Amino acid sequence: MWVYSIIFIVALGFTTNQETKMTTAEIASFKQLVQNQAKSISSIQTDFTQKKSMAFLENDVISKGRMLLNAEGNLKWQYTEPNKYSIIFKNDRIYINDNGNKSTPSVDQRLFNKISALISSSIKGDVFNDAEFSYEYFKKGTDILVKMSSKDKTLAKYIQKIELIFPKNEALVSQVKLIEPSGDFTIISFTNRKLNAVIDKKEFEH
Questions:
Q1: CA-based, 20 to 30 A from 89: which of 14, 21, 40, 96?
Q2: Is residue 160 a contact partner of residue 63, using CB atoms and an 8 Å limit?
Q3: For the purposes of burial, counting CB atoms within 10 Å of the CB of 176, is it exposed (0-12), middle (13-18) or buried (19 or more)?
Q4: For range 128-153, the mean pLDDT
Q5: In Å, how far are 25, 46, 69, 89 from 98, measured between CA atoms?
Q6: Neighbours of 111 (CB within 10 A)
Q7: Where is pLDDT greater, at 39 or 193?
């Protein structure tokens, strides 16, 4: 009897984690929910855990920190573990502070704007109308999984696919997976999210 119990539990776990394509009506309802809530969000503060998986490394590279997005669209990734490091996207520029060593790297303007907008919209969930991606929608257990494939050749050199996880009946992303052409990927999980609070402008000084 215990053997059958184990088989049942394993089968149940497999079933609840299967990806099932959503119907057209389900997709429309989900997109409306997400878009409505995204319109009401002016700022986000959240903690995150980032796991980087690379083929040549035996173990994942794990980092932790917090992310800030203000009403002006400025974005800050502040890493606190294992190293102190911050990246600020502001006024079409990128600013890096590596434990006190500041720099402003030169990047392709179009690519920078695209990545900055993509990150912001992904976090807010307002990302379903970008013509440079194709979209697939799935139910995975109690969550909703959105798979985005890049149609833009320039962006696809860096990010080939993006997968977003939305918890049941929620319109904000809880997890983002960025998949590179090599197959390496990064998973960013968000916790302790705080919405529409005033963020000190000093956070985005560089």
A1: 40
A2: no
A3: buried
A4: 88
A5: 47, 21, 20, 15
A6: 14
A7: 193
**Is 184 part of any domain?**
yes
Asked whether the beta carbons of 47 and 190 are under 8 A apart, the reply is: yes
Give 167 or 123, the one with higher predicted confidence.
Answer: 167
User: Sign of the C-alpha dihedral, residues 93, 98, 102, 103?
Assistant: negative
Q: What total number of domains does the chain contain?
A: 1
Residue 20's H or E segment, with its range, is strand 19-21
Which residue in 170, 82, 155 sits closest to 119, CA to CA? Answer: 155
**Within-domain flag for 86:** yes
Instruction: Please tell me the predicted confidence (pLDDT) of residue 23.
Output: 94
Q: Is-cis flag, bond preceding 82, omega within 30?
A: yes
Q: Which strand (E) or helix (H) includes residue 30?
A: helix 24-39
Q: What radius of gyration, in Å, describes the C-alpha atoms of the chain?
A: 19
Question: What is the Cβ-side half-sphere exposure of residue 39, based on CA atoms within 13 angstroms?
Answer: 5
Percent of the chain with pLDDT over 70: 87
For the entire predicted model, the pTM comes to 0.81
Tell me what pLDDT residue 53 has. 86
Q: Which structural domain, as residue segments, surrounds residue 79?
A: 20-204
pLDDT band at 71 (very low <50, low <70, confident <90, very high): confident
